[in-house]
Amino acid sequence: MTGEESSRRPRKIVHVDMDAFYASVEQRDNPELRGVPVAVGSPAARGVVAAASYEARKFGVHSAMPSVTAQRKCPDLVFVKPRFDVYKAVSLQIRTIFAEYTPIIEPLSLDEAYLDVTENLKGMEIATEIAAEIRAKIKATTGLTASAGISYNKFLAKMASDQNKPDGQFVITPKNGSAFVERLPVKKFHGVGPATAEKMHRLGIETGADLKERTLDFLVEHFGKSGPYFYGIARGIDDRLVRPDRVRKSVGAEDTFSQDIHSFEPAREGLQPLIEKVWGYCEANEIGAKTVTLKVKYADFSQITRSKTVSSALSAIVDLEEIVALLLAPIFPPRNGIRLLGVSLSSLDRRRSEVTPQLRFLL
Ligand SMILES: [Mg+2]
């Protein structure tokens, strides 16, 4: 199919998004947490909320909020340690369900994905029925609820999945796409972060309708490469394809410490759980890696990275530990207290060629 044909033919895109994912998994597995405001994350001084239950959201607690702020907004907030291995296992379950319907799946994170169901493996005509079936299967298999957005492009499908959350779905047809966008505040647009929203606000753009009034030249002048994207979505147009094989370029983990680090041994200890996390991910997904990068952020927020590339993929966690220690040693004594350390692996390769389809979606 040529690009022209693909953009002319109406597509059926479903965006599936688990409801308060990490928090819902914790409430599922621990009945004492049900009905209680829950934050997944560390309550420590520099911790942040990774996910908040709906009970917590009523108090204004949301993900990426500093834990201290969250606790202040909701004094009864219960903090739960994240269990990423469990979230990954659930993620694999939902992706297996998606794969019954279409091979064209683009995960955005563990709990969210775009599905192109224009041509689907069940021969179903109605995308809203596909979305309803998928949500029912997710509920039956995992005990968790998901919401879905159904539309003719990715942007609108993503916006639609938010409309009837939790445990709901919403469809935006080609006929009402443009009107839907006009009413939407731009700060809710996918692809418009807080900084861009603020810039739009300064330019007098508050809603999709305001955005639609601006010319393409104006949007390119003020938003550069994103200009054409904003110009399109203001009209309900988004030709981006659902990309099933978006392969990860790196796997990393980092941690901000509650107290600045000044010596080698505590730094090495602080790095150990990060090493285990990234190594565990690579093992689980059969990814080989040749490049190790250490990231160091100082108390004054300046940052350095140090990398080492080896000739063949690392074969054991001790090799990774050794390289990290080699990269770490020369930075001591540090010019300033160390606030954050991170480890990432890149130059990735799938270790085996015959990766199962389900696993492929995790990469
Ligand atoms: Mg979600």
TrEMBL record:
As for subcellular location, the record says: Cytoplasm
Annotated coiled-coil positions are: none
Q: Annotated site (Substrate discrimination), which positions?
A: 22
* Cofactor dependence: Mg(2+)
Record: residues binding Mg(2+): 17, 111
Read off the Gene3D superfamilies from this record. 3.30.70.270, 3.40.1170.60, 5' to 3' exonuclease, C-terminal subdomain (1.10.150.20), DNA polymerase, Y-family, little finger domain (3.30.1490.100)
Keywords linked to the UniProt accession: Cytoplasm, DNA damage, DNA repair, DNA replication, DNA-binding, DNA-directed DNA polymerase, Magnesium, Metal-binding, Mutator protein, Nucleotidyltransferase, Plasmid, Transferase
**UmuC domain: from which residue to which, for each copy?**
13-193
Q: What are the GO BP annotations of this UniProt entry?
A: DNA repair; DNA-templated DNA replication; error-prone translesion synthesis; SOS response
What GO cellular component entries does it have? cytosol
TM segments? none
The EC number(s) given in the record are 2.7.7.7
The active site is formed by 112
Chemical reaction(s) catalysed: DNA(n) + a 2'-deoxyribonucleoside 5'-triphosphate = DNA(n+1) + diphosphate
Query: Listed GO molecular functions?
Result: damaged DNA binding; DNA-directed DNA polymerase activity; magnesium ion binding
Give the matching Pfam families. IMS (PF00817), IMS_C (PF11799), IMS_HHH (PF11798)
User: Could you tell me what the cofactor note in this record states?
Assistant: Binds 2 magnesium ions per subunit.
UniProt record similarity statement:
Belongs to the DNA polymerase type-Y family.
List the PANTHER family hit by this protein, alphabetically: DNA POLYMERASE KAPPA, DNA REPAIR POLYMERASE UMUC / TRANSFERASE FAMILY MEMBER
Q: How does it assemble?
A: Monomer.
Function per UniProt: Poorly processive, error-prone DNA polymerase involved in untargeted mutagenesis. Copies undamaged DNA at stalled replication forks, which arise in vivo from mismatched or misaligned primer ends. These misaligned primers can be extended by PolIV. Exhibits no 3'-5' exonuclease (proofreading) activity. May be involved in translesional synthesis, in conjunction with the beta clamp from PolIII.
Question: Known HAMAP family for this protein?
Answer: DNApol_IV
**Protein's name in the database:** DNA polymerase IV
What organism is listed for this UniProt entry?
Rhizobium leguminosarum
**What gene is this protein a product of?**
dinB
